[in-house]
Structure formats: structure tokens, C-alpha cells
Amino acid sequence: MTPSGDFIKGGEDCLYLNIYVPQRKSWGLMPTLVYLHGGVFQFSTLEGNEQDYLMDHGVIFVTVAYRVGMLGFLSTGDEVVPGNMGLKDQALALKWIHANIRFFGGDPNRVTLVGVSSGASSVHYHYLSKQARGLFHAGMSFSGTALNPWAMAKNSNDKAKAIARLVKCPTDNSTSMISCLKEKPAYFLADLQTSLMPWNLHEPAPFAPVVEKPSKTAFIDRQPIDILDSGDVYDVPWLTGVVSEEGIFTVGEFAFNETALKQLNDDWADLAPHLLDYDFTVAEERKAVVAKRIREHYFLNEPIDKSNVRSLIHMLAARAQARANRAPVWLYYYNYRGMDSTSHVLTKSRVNLGVCHTDDVMLVLGNKMIKPAKTDRDFDMHKQMMQMWLSVARTGLHISHTLAHIFNLNITLRAPGKKEWHDFSPFLARVCLCSPAKETYGL
């Protein structure tokens, strides 16, 4: 069940798999790509994906519909509703796939997790949890890790209480609060969650993964960075990367909307805490000061309008990557701009603002609005990205010599005072020995 514009789509019965199998039967047992959709943990973004391109290459493609928003990630911070229901849905789906994919022609020992945005963070979370170990042989995270600031809910119990107060449920203890909330229609609660995103639905997720109290059913019971530091991570290959202008996705829907930009300009002090995800982490009396300093830094106190949309993009990209730069693995930085871009859909404009969030994934999958390749250059890049996906699906993370020349892998991004990428993932030290690219399409 997910908010979609002015209405709610779906229902409480959320866990479903769509399994796409090539018609050709002579491939033998095929590798399987399991796709976890994005949507900031609040929305389903499965509709519109096209898997036809993958079907020509002897792989099975599985999409997972799982609980999102309140139904998937509400937490009271205790045993009443510990949280992470959406991630546990994904783990259950992986168990089913491991047990049954052979009946669809799939190899249970070659299951690869793939995700974009919050789906990418979900992939990373499965490396940190024990619930899905042994159920996949590699993973790919596009524009998201468990260390992104939006990938972990802050003050989750306060948000649960905020929803409870809206429907006049008691908040003095978790049991009575949840009992009351369960009496409310699910579609009504799903609609209410947007009250925690008061300006724009692409604001940071109010409901997201949490650290649970230790128990047999806990998905994770330590902070992701602590799990990484301990080395208690599922030791299978992982490919991850970001695009050059991640912030376009957040800005896109209002980048050329003069009314929205004027509201952002006029109400900056009130909207900045929601837009930049510090509403629950900065003291009330400090919020205006923080908003003022951010505005001075990015906009030099100039009015926020169409003339400085790029500053807005860079500000939100910095927010999106503030913690991502400390991620345990850095592999690629994607800045190939194709003929079509997700930004065209978001902005309803053909203005080139750069490479948008999900453009790399859309070049492989495409959807009803964006076709992967419209020019020879697009098609060449599409083939190289497809080869990368297939290499991971078939072999784990074997990067061919040809692919290494096209994809000039960037393994130099490091954060001061943090461990190097190879401290976390020795396997990458083996596969990233690639020559400089003669011609680089952006990575």
C-alpha cells in the first residue's frame, strides 16, 4: 500500500513476486537477478519497468513487492513493533526464491540482488543482516547504501507517536498506541504518513530501517557502521556507485515550477528542516540558524529561483552523499548523459541539468516513459552497462578486460579518518586491477 499522487494504491497484503523467464529453454540453469525497487522506503516504484532487454541474455528477472511506509517501517523502538518489516519481507522473498527458482529454470547458487535508491540501500542491508546469508551470491547497489543519511530512521518512536496523535490514539505506551492504530483503516494511515513530508514527497523518508533491540528476529541490532567495523558482513561481491547529479531527483519536480520555488524561497526557514532531513535531529531553537547558514553557503543569500536551480541540486546532492562518501566500497561514478533522462520526466522539461538519479539503471531496464537507447552512443553505453550486470549475475564480480577499459573504475574516493575500501572488501582489491580507460563513457 503506497501513496500515489492524490490516492492510495495497493493493500496490506504486499509481499508478491513477479518472475520473468526467457522463452528459450536451452540456457541450462540460469542466473537470477532479484530487483528491489526504490521509493525512499515510502512508495512502490515497480510499475513501468521493462525487463525485455534482460530476457535476451539468459537471465531470470524477479521483482519484489514488499511493505513500505508505515506498514513496512514503522517502529516503536521496542518489542511491540521493532520495525524493518519491509526488509524482513525481502529476506522471506529471498528464502522462497532460493528454494523454488530451480522450478523456473534458475540456478539457486547464482542469485544476485539488485537495487536502486532505497532498494540499493536494502541490498546493502542484506550484507549486514544474518537473515539472508547464503541466499544470494552477489549484489549491486545503484545510488544507495545503508550509510546514506536517509537509509536509517531517526527518532522512529516520535514519528509513530506523531501519527498516533493525528488519529487521537494514546501515546503513553507502545501497546495501547499500536492497538489503537490497528483499528484504523490501512489506507487512512498510509495517507497520513505524508503529513510527515509536508512540502514534497521526495523529502527524506519518515519511515525507514532502524536498529532493533537484540532478539532472534532482529534484522539488524547494531548501527551499520559498527557492523562494518566489526567485519561481521556477508562476504560476497558487491558493486556500488552513484551518478553525478543525484540531487536532480529531489529538485526535479519543482526545478521549473515558479510557484514552488517562490514558496521555498519565502518559507525557507520552515521548509529546510524537512527538505534536508534535520527536522528530528536539530533542536527547535537552532533550526532557523541552521537554515540561514545553509542558505548563505549554497545561495549566497540570493533569492531561490530558476537562475540558481543548479545550486539547489548541488545542495541536495551533498545531503544525499554526506554519509555515502564513507561507504565501505567505492566502485564507480557515473556521468554519462543519454538522450533521455529521468530528469525529463521529473521537470517536464528537456533542459540538461546533468545525470539524474536512476539514469544508470534506466539505461539497462528502461520503463514506459524512458527507453534505454535512442542514439548509437546510448546503445553502446547500454551494451556496456548490460555487460556489467550480466557479469555480476553470471560470475559474481568478474570484470572482463574489455569492460575494465570502458569502465574506468574509480577506487580513489576516501573519507578522512575512515578505513580504506580494501579494509572492508578484500575481494575488490582483486577485481579492481584495471588499466586506464582509453575512452571513458563517464564512470
From TrEMBL:
Family, per entry: Belongs to the type-B carboxylesterase/lipase family.
Superkingdom of this protein's organism: Eukaryota
Domain Carboxylesterase type B: 10-397
Keywords from the named record: Disulfide bond, Glycoprotein, Hydrolase, Serine esterase
Single GO molecular function: carboxylic ester hydrolase activity
Cross-referenced InterPro entries: AB_hydrolase_fold, CarbesteraseB, Carboxylesterase_B_AS, Carboxylesterase_B_CS
Name under which the protein is recorded: Carboxylic ester hydrolase
Transmembrane segments annotated in the record for this chain: none
KW Membrane (keyword) present: no
Keyword Cytoplasm: no
The protein's Enzyme Commission number: 3.1.1.-
Record Pfam families: COesterase
